[in-house]
Amino acid sequence: MLSFSAGLATWPVLLHAQENYFVTYSHELEEPGNLEVAAKSITGAPKGGNPFVATAVEFEYGINGWWTTELYLDGQTTIHESTVFTGFRFENRIRPLLREHWINPVLYFEFEDLNAADKALLEVVGHDTKDDLISRNSRAEKEREVELKLILSSNFKGWNVSENFIAEKNLGPSSWEFGYALATSRALALKATPNACNFCRENFALGAELYGGLGERHSFGLSETSHYFAPVLAWNIPSGPAIRFSPTFGLNQNSNGFLFRFLLSYEVDQFFSRLRGEP
Amino acid sequence: MRLPGVIACLLLVGMAFAEAGDGSWLRKVADKDRARSNPLENDPDAAAAGAKVYAEHCAPCHGDDAEGKMHGRHYRPNLHSKRVKEATPGELYWLLTNGSLRNGMPSWSRFPEPERWQLVTYLKSLH
After folding, report:
1. Backbone torsions φ then ψ of B14, nearest 5 degrees
2. Percent of chain A whose pLDDT exceeds 90
3. DSSP assignment, residue A98?
4. Hey, which of A12, A44, B10, B80 would disulfide with A259, CB 3.0 to 4.6 Å?
5. What does the domain layout of chain A look like in residue ranges?
6. Which residues does chain A have within 8 Å of residue B99's beta carbon, measured at their own beta carbons?
7. Among A10, A25, A100, which would you mutate to test the B interface (most chain B Cβ atoms within 10 Å of its Cβ)?
8. Chain centroid to CA B83: how far?
9. Chain B residues within 8 A of A192 when measuring between CB atoms
10. At the fourth CATH level, which superfamily is domain A2-275?
11. CA-CA distance, B34 to A140, in Å (whole number)?
């Protein structure tokens, strides 16, 4: 117990985090043995509906150098309605190629058990529209789905460019739904400064995401789909949390006009070593 | 084949590919990468900046003094070793870029190129 407490006591000075996007995945995996805990929130006031805040709490663990696993717990609060737990997601990402290439593929598998009240909007697929955000909170309708993604990502001269192709299938009788997410980002400085600093340009990154639905198996295309464009500002505080902001703009009449995303994450190095109280 | 079966197969294929990696990382470095020189070798701030990046991202595994560390059953190597001392800057840069994923060393390609060279400068300053 003493060693466990001692391990915990050292955590606050050993925290840092990474990644610059909300929806899009790059080929960065969690470092082996590290645990990242993050709260991804989104808020909006859709026309014809009540304002809401939805949060997905993420636990991301690096199993080894090429395999990362994650658990999400989702919930949301809608003004004048209720606060509800909306379900969980369990996902795995695997890098099939062990070296860095011009384009780096990652295979992504997810099982999600959510109810219809979920508004986390961690992906947009099929014919998802703004109506999904204005329906009243109901936990009656269950959505047990599997989701596959092909993640392609490149790092070049300080830039990251990532493309995700999404296929999602409800385990009930429904067809495959498709979506996409594209993103790019760059740190504001490519060299580290020699002195410790929280506000150095190297700790900030700017980027943008573009994501949306691509219809279903029998109605593939852009018809009746929603799309979003979202600039992202990331601030990685050395030995501290990472913070991200993203004003999100709907691009067509099926999209919600404006949403705002916010993320706070901590990364705990060598989580189980610390639990064991190893020096 | 039912959907869970497909997913299980894809997972196994992914794992099989991942396990198909080569042996020692040094043998994988191409000659042109091995021969690369450090553009920040004479930058007076590079080693100090590299030390800062090291302390933030590398020390949790390799130790504050870079002398290696045990994490459970896994040993994270001593960076004062002969292997690191004799490695060319290009080889160290290659390792930082590609990692050695089978052995638990992640790829640090998300660091911009100059920052990786700063780390190389710091690693070389240990010897």
Report:
1. -60, -45
2. 79
3. -
4. A44
5. 2-275
6. 65, 100
7. A100
8. 13
9. 49-50, 52-53, 115, 118
10. monomeric porin ompg (2.40.160.40)
11. 60
Are A94 and B104 inside 8 Å of each other by CB? no
Chain B interface mutation, best of A36, A66, A97, A144, highest count of B Cβ atoms under 10 Å: A66
Give per-residue pLDDT as tens, B25-54. 888 899 999 999 999 999 999 999 999 999
Question: What 3-state DSSP class applies to A114?
Answer: strand
Q: Where are the domains of chain B?
A: 23-125
SS3 content of chain B, % helix, strand, coil (to 5): 55, 5, 35
Neighbours of B10 (CB within 10 A): 14
Cβ atoms A181, A23 nearer than 8 A? yes
| A29–B106 C-beta distance less than 8 A | yes
Nearest to A273 among B51, B71, B106 (CB): B71
C-alpha A52: how far from chain center: 18
Give the closest-approach CA distance of B51 to chain A in angstroms.
8
Q: Do B101 and A18 touch (CB under 8 A)?
A: no
Judge whether B114 is closer than 8 Å to chain A, CB to CB.
yes
The verdict on a CB contact (< 8 Å) between A192 and B52 is: yes
> What residue of A is the nearest CA neighbor of B62?
A270
> What is the residue-averaged pLDDT of chain A?
91
Q: Which residues of A234-249 are buried (b: 16+ CB within 10 A; e: fewer)?
A: bebebebbbebebebe
Q: Superfamily for B23-125?
A: Cytochrome c-like domain (1.10.760.10)
Encoded amino acid at A112, one letter: E
Q: Which of A191, A198, A200, A217 to mutate to test the interface with B (most CBs of B within 10 A)?
A: A191
What tokens were used for A166?
């999404």
pLDDT in tens, A18-39: 568 999 999 999 999 999 999 9
Q: For residues A142 and A131, give the distance between their C-alpha atoms in angstroms, rounded to a whole number.
A: 17
Give the model's confidence band at B108: pLDDT under 50 very low, under 70 low, under 90 confident, else very high. Answer: very high
